[in-house]
Amino acid sequence: MSQRGVLVTGGAGYIGSHVVKQLGAMGERLVVLDNLSTGFADAVTYGDFVQGDTGDTELVSSLLRDYDVESVIHFAAHTIVPESVAQPLKYYGNNTCKTRNLLQCCNEAGVKHFIFSSTAAVYGIPTGPYCYEDSPLAPINPYGTSKLMSETMLRDLSAASDLRHVVLRYFNVAGCDPDGEIGQSTRHATLLIKVAAEVTVGKREKLMIFGTDYPTPDGTGVRDYIHVSDLADAHVKALIYLRDGGDSATLNCGYGHGYSVREVVDMVNKVNGTPIVAEEHPRRAGDPPELVAAVDKIHERLEWKPQYDNLEFIVRTSLEWEKKLAAKRG
Ligand code: UD1
Fold it and tell me: How far apart are CA 320 and CA 183, in angstroms?
């Protein structure tokens, strides 16, 4: 029998493309479904690429059948928090309703494993310094709620069927492929390190520091920045875990320690060699002061050993990719 397939939705996007690269290098049979609303076809370095939407149940069902799909890794989603506040239905439609349709197709096709991209945004404003997987779930923006609703559907479907799943709650994903082959090409970037990288190549004039009066050591927001290649490896390990018969699990993906916006800016200045313009502004809507992952559970469940827990490396790979992108786009 030929090898069973893995469907990767959103595999032309930032995180999905890094996972496709790692799975492809391992010889997995991949089919990548992406509507290219934010992704790029040339970021798909392995497998068959199909341009289409996860909400297209006919297309999804045919891919599940044609590739004999046993495992689905679902990245396709909108991810911009302020946009989710302004256009909530866009987020519930794309992130929640389409995930429901995808799950129905998976259920009908007998898919066994499902790996879902969730987010630290499901925790809202944490009550303590760390977010544990069983901490209260109280998202403060529609993006987080749209993901939490999908987590819930997945939990209920796994309880009612043979499906097993891993929910990965990402903290702040940053950095780019250390080989420089792929990276973060997002057109309208909002993420801190990406925006700072754009300032270093002159794509933007300045970085805005949102909020300097948070109850954190230097007054700016603190986040747990995880290198995208380590995050991609967590997906690979989650797939192996499910294939080995592991129970459904929800796991934080971070390093377990945070950096403030000012610390990130200092590192960008150090790696860049020239300071960037960074202006202080009021807080941005929907931003909690501090988000750091409790990481015992992921280490306990998956054989995951991060390799790039180093802010300088994260920033350097981001800046190198941004230079490449600037040269390519002219
Ligand atoms: C948010 C989500 C996260 C999601 C990500 C993708 C929450 C709590 N987290 O991360 O789940 O995956 O968006 O969109 O909703 N900052 C600046 N200037 C900038 C950009 C950011 O000062 O130009 C600050 C922010 O105020 C924050 C930190 O940098 O303190 C990180 O922000 P960002 O990179 O946008 O990610 P989050 O909002 O933490």
Answer: 9
